[in-house]
Amino acid sequence: MTFATHWQACPTPTAPKHLNATFVRAETATINTMFAPLQNDTFLRACLRESTAHTPVWLMRQAGRYLAEYRETRAKAGSFMGLATNTDFATEVTLQPLERFPLDAAILFSDILTVPDAMGLGLSFAIGEGPKFAKVVRDEAAVSALAVPDMAKLQYVFDAVTSIRKALNGRVPLIGFSGSPWTLGCYMVEGAGSSDYRLVKTLMYQRPDLMHRILTINADSVAAYLNAQIEAGAQAVMIFDSWGGVLADAEFKSFSLAYTQRVLSKIHKTFNGETIPSIVFTKGGGLWMSEMQSLDCNVLGMDWSVNLAKARAQLGATHALQGNLDPNVLFASPEQVTEQARAVLDSFGQPHQGDGKGPTHIFNLGHGISQFTPPENVAVLVEAVHSHSKAMRQK
Fold first, then answer.
1. I want to staple 109 with a disulfide (CB 3.0 to 4.6 A). Which of 59, 94, 232, 318 is the partner?
2. In the predicted model, what is the mean pLDDT of the chain?
3. Quick check: helix, strand or coil at residue 395?
4. Which of 168, 13, 163 is nearest to 88 (CA)?
5. pLDDT grade, residue 338 (50/70/90)?
6. Residue-wise pLDDT tens digits, 298-314
């Protein structure tokens, strides 16, 4: 089955109960004619474990501070949130890396912490610092006050999704995303980034009931948020479990993996006849590949500590793999960048070719790109991935 016929075979999802049938038919027709046909479906085909002419490549944080044009746009916006909440600015910076590099996917410019911000915790960013919340969630009263936020508070994100999808004009697919329930919970309890996760782990061990309550609300919020992004035009969605790897074995399964699966069980698998692939990336998650194999997603992202050949042997029959170049390779010489990119591709081996489904690979970094990365090395990387992966398919 080809990618196109796979999409056509997918049924239109059941309409929300609060919408009448006439409205739904009109809304579906509007959405289907709102966006240009997709010209490069390589990324989506790889997500669905279908054959591709080359290995698709995109980069986590590909719209960001390593680009001078991003820094200029951020200065005009006045702040990170000023950038993220302005539809025109968010669209502009999402497209900036695609103007420089022939990447195979775009990812929405936003932040993983927009959901707890909509819960009323007060997200802010200072230049040179990470995110901070004005309010924290560390006791029974604060947990009792939590609820799934009104998605109208996040309309700026959905407006950006639609605007970006239109601006892409079918060039490449658009990825939407959110932080995982556990990662969001860490920030909500800690109030900012952490080096030791002391506060969130103290709450988890002393009052697991409160932690589970936070994570349940987070999971339902993330699912609603991702569904709204899909309905606005996102063609794939990704869950960033950035802090999952800090947990002990049993706690990862109970407090991270279980709630990621809760999100996956609630998000759209298809929308308006199109398959919507899902990606899960857990930094430090290589220890739990066997457990993550049960996740109801299409793609598992790997950080740079994972051997792709071993991951393929274990997971290639169930999930596409994404990753996993060490981001610091991009500070080496162009020749070394090329060599290391080829090494990642060779580690995975020749992807599935021909009809049906089989092991496929999406090239990415093992974590987000550094703000200090030379952009010219990104160009070298993308060219190396495309040229070497094409050559591999000719062997």
1. 94
2. 91
3. coil
4. 163
5. very high
6. 999 999 999 999 999 99
Q: Position of tokens 């986590």?
A: 60
The average pLDDT across 342-353 equals 97
What percent helix, strand, coil does the chain show, rounded to 5? Answer: 50, 10, 35
- Please tell me the total count of domains within the chain: 1
Mapped onto helix, strand or coil, the DSSP state of residue 278 is strand
Q: Does the reported pTM lie above 0.85?
A: yes
Among 120-129, 151-160, 279-288, the least confident range: 120-129
Tokens of 358: 């089989």
Q: Residue 136: how many CB atoms within 10 A of its CB?
A: 17
Measure CA 52 to chain center: 21
User: 342: burial class by Cβ within 10 Å (0-12, 13-18, 19+)?
Assistant: middle
For the chain, how many residues are written? 395
Nearest to 321 by CA among 55, 107, 54: 55
Q: Which residues have CB under 8 Å from 183's CB, separation 6+?
A: 112, 240, 241, 242, 243, 244
Please list the residues that pair with 133 across neighbouring strands: 123
pLDDT of residue 25 exceeding 90, the answer is: no
Name the residues annotated as catalytic.
61, 65, 74, 111, 187
Q: Within its chain, how far is the Cα of 28 from the centroid?
A: 25
Cα separation, 302 vs 5, whole angstroms: 30
- Between helix 208-232 and helix 155-168 the angle, nearest 10°, is 40
* Cα 43 from chain centre: 13
Q: In which domain, by residue range, is 92 found? A: 3-392
Q: Count CB atoms within 10 A of the CB of residue 205.
A: 11
Distance CA 101, CA 104 (A): 9
Q: CATH code at 48? A: 3.20.20.210
pLDDT tens-digit readout, 218-276: 999 999 999 999 999 999 999 999 989 999 999 999 999 999 999 999 999 999 999 99
To which residue do tokens 């556990």 refer? 182
Its sign, for the CA torsion 363, 228, 267, 51, is negative
Distance CA 325, CA 356 (A): 28
